[in-house]
Design a protein that fits this description.
- With about 270 residues, the chain is of the alpha+beta class.
- It folds into 2 domains: about 110 residues, Glutaredoxin (3-Layer(aba) Sandwich); about 150 residues, Glutathione S-transferase Yfyf (Class Pi), Chain A, domain 2 (Up-down Bundle).
- It contains 10 helices and 7 strands.
- Strand 6 and strand 7 form a beta hairpin.
- The longest helix is centred in the middle third of the chain and has 28 residues.
- The radius of gyration is 18 Å and the shape is globular.
- The chain starts with a strand and ends with a helix.
């Protein structure tokens, strides 16, 4: 299964009021028949960067999947105190499909593929489709800790989530709450054996993975074929989040691998909402 970003850890936006749904201009829809009403739920904190529609890689993944599928949708920024009404697990994204709450990024991708068949597995035979879903799962489980490490465990990245997610907390409590959430995030990374050896060892691990992905990245086309697939959506969401410009040490790691960076740029151009 895929993943979602927890409401408590690590991409927190507690105490923020729900914003009005923001309309996202979709590409033209060309099929006949009634389309379901789609509402993509995101955290209230915003990056203010047009190519990074969410701090959550998983919400970003669904944003790009909906654009690739040319499905019209709206974006809704959730009141974090009401998050468990959408998803009892307290995770985002949630895609509301005609009033039905669909949680978990991989389940949402399967639902999008059912709504727009072939848009995320175009040109792939059964073996290619299986490989694409495996890469999507790899990205969700193996690459997400890299994003958390760069933002939450590294002092250089910590000002970004601290400033984005805790501004609504009353000033006397802000540092206390922010530091408690950060400690909880780091604890989870240690429990997953990602930070057990310390930050330097974690970055050595990240660099080995990025080197391998750079060597594997196609010079043309996409990860498992000529067209974007769920493999590209999964890999792009995590690696593009790692190169968030405001977290310079993460972005520099991607920029140091030009083959991988060119691949991400192709996916970016192919899936950017119109």
């Amino acid at each position: 299964m895929g993943r979602g970003t927890p409401g408590m850890l690590p991409e927190l936006g507690r105490g923020s009021a729900a914003a009005a749904p923001r309309a996202v201009r979709p590409p033209a829809w060309g099929t006949v028949g009634a389309m379901p009403t789609l509402l993509l739920c995101d955290f209230p904190a915003k990056t203010e960067l047009p190519r990074w529609s969410s701090f959550s890689p998983f919400v970003l993944q669904i944003d790009r999947a909906l654009a690739l599928a040319k499905l019209p949708y709206e974006k809704h920024y959730v009141d974090m105190l009401k998050l468990k009404r959408l998803n009892p697990l307290g995770q985002l994204p949630v895609l509301v499909v005609d009033g039905e709450n669909v949680a978990d990024s991989t389940r949402i991708l399967h639902r999008i593929e059912a709504l727009a068949p072939g848009t995320m597995l175009r040109g792939l035979d059964a073996r290619g489709q299986a490989e694409a879903w495996l890469w999507e799962e790899f990205a969700d489980t193996a690459l997400y800790p890299h994003v958390l490490t760069a933002r939450w465990a590294d002092d250089r990245g910590w000002p970004v989530p601290r400033g984005a997610f805790f501004g609504a907390v009353p000033a006397p409590l802000r540092s206390l709450v922010a530091n408690a959430v950060r400690r909880g995030t780091i604890k989870k990374l240690v429990q997953r054996d990602f930070l057990r050896g310390g930050l330097e060892a974690a970055y050595e691990r990240i660099d080995r993975v990025l080197d391998t992905l750079d060597a594997r990245a196609p010079e043309q086309g996409f990860w498992v074929g000529e067209h974007p697939s769920v493999a590209d959506l999964g890999l792009f969401a995590q690696l593009h989040s790692l190169r968030l410009p405001t977290v310079a040490h993460g972005a520099e790691r991607i920029a140091a691998r030009p083959r991988l960076e060119r691949y991400l740029d192709r996916v970016d151009a192919a899936t950017l909402p119109g």
